[in-house]
Amino acid sequence: MPTLRSATASASPAATPSPAAASTPRSVKRRLTPGRAGESPKASRHTSPHRSPHAGAGTACTPKLLSASPKSSRKRLYGDLVAAEKPKWNPRDPAQMRAVKEALHVATVPSCELVCRDNEQRRVFEFCKACIEQEKAGSLYICGCPGTGKTLSVNKVKESLGRWADEMGMETPDSLAINCTNLANTSEIFSKILGQFQNRKKGSSKLSPLQQLQSMFSNEESAPRRMMLVIVDEMDYLITRDRAVLHDLFMLTTCPYSRCILIGIANAIDLADRFLPKLESLNCKPFAVTFRAYSKDQISDIIKHRLKVLEYDVFEPLALEFCARKVAAATGDMRKALGVCRSAVEVLETRLQDSDQELGIVTFDHMDIALSKAFKSPIVDSILCLPQHQQMVLCALANTFQHCKKKATTLGELNKSYIEICRSTQVPAVGMLEFSNMCMVLSDQGFMKLGQSKEDKLRRVTLQIDISDIGFAFKGNRFFQKCLKQPRC
């Protein structure tokens, strides 16, 4: 049978069919000439879209394809490969609005895997898995800023450990989760752990819960046979002056017959530096895992992952990127990002209620309002209550430190910047004495700090508030936006 290439090469409108072409089976000819008259539409629908229009035995198929509309040709050629367009979101539908808010709620736990924390979860899982296989106690310390997925990751690891133990035919470890914010006092944590072994033989009532645990884990007969995963969340609350509770808790894993896998979770990054050296000297230094703040890409991916359960688009891509960038630059707190997204949805909902606006999605403007509310501080309200000239002094300070990247300036240089702003806005400037008094008032209110000098103009000036607070305060005010745009240095 001839190859497809030889059959194609021999086909020409002006030439007579060659012997090779004449011997070509009908099935091959049918594939080569999808536009022949009399061929059923069903057969032409299966023609490969990647084949050249000159590959057939004739050019009769070309007008048929060119005459069709682009949309119909795409559907006919690619069939099911064309992705169906998503249905539009209806913000006026209470059920859809409720589904969006639930997907963005911090209490909603993703049903599938947790994205962007694969490496951290793998390290925690491998540590716990090694302890279970060796039937050996161990301690793990997890630290990171708030909203970085520490508790959620540990809970996912706990579920993975249960599935792994079932697959391996091993005994599933018991688990105990303790939130230290719910403890009446720090030493109550030992009572919580002891309560898990109440079916065991109890020690003397004269012993404290800690002493009973130490006695239990030091005796082979009274020691538990099953491993137990103890998750201590918000461990920062266990920090006392002598840190005795914290040290005693980790030392439980060093007892000869202890079966505790202790996982401590804390928000303080420097907590490890403060108490790990002492634990190392006590021979109970925990394995540490740090959860870094989320980046803008991670925040965007997590929000998109949560919204996958919906069949419609809720956010404009630019609005979602704006939220991710702002939160990542400020804190990297995923809970903050989810709260901002919910707030932006509520802004859209309010606008739809107050007007007859057409249906739409959350735009950049909606997200901008939500971010302004989320990051607005009491300092912003204080700035807005200042007199106009004092506000212009703050604008001069912001321009000086933002554009020149300085940490300090002098009162004389600040006065020059202030006079330039007054000229550009056509507002009469005050004299040097009154300007110095205004700066003293701003210093007393904590906006800036003035140093000491024999000459007033040489007094050192440093900004005591965040420059972004000044920008937030004057956002939307054209007069002060013009002041802040003035180049300095």
From TrEMBL:
UniProt feature, compositional bias: Low complexity: 1-25
Gene Ontology CC: one annotated term: nucleus
Name of a matching Pfam family: AAA_22
GO molecular function (one): DNA replication origin binding
Chief location bin: nucleus
Annotated Basic residues bias: 43-53
Keyword Chloroplast: no
Compartments it resides in: Nucleus
Entry keywords, A to Z: Cell cycle, Cell division, DNA replication, Nucleus
Biological processes annotated in GO: cell division; DNA replication initiation; mitotic DNA replication checkpoint signaling
Domain Cdc6 C-terminal: 394-474
Region listing for Disordered, in residue ranges: 1-73
Keyword Cell cycle: yes
Domain AAA+ ATPase positions: 136-285
Family: Belongs to the CDC6/cdc18 family.
Protein name as annotated: Cell division control protein
Species whose genome carries this gene: Setaria italica
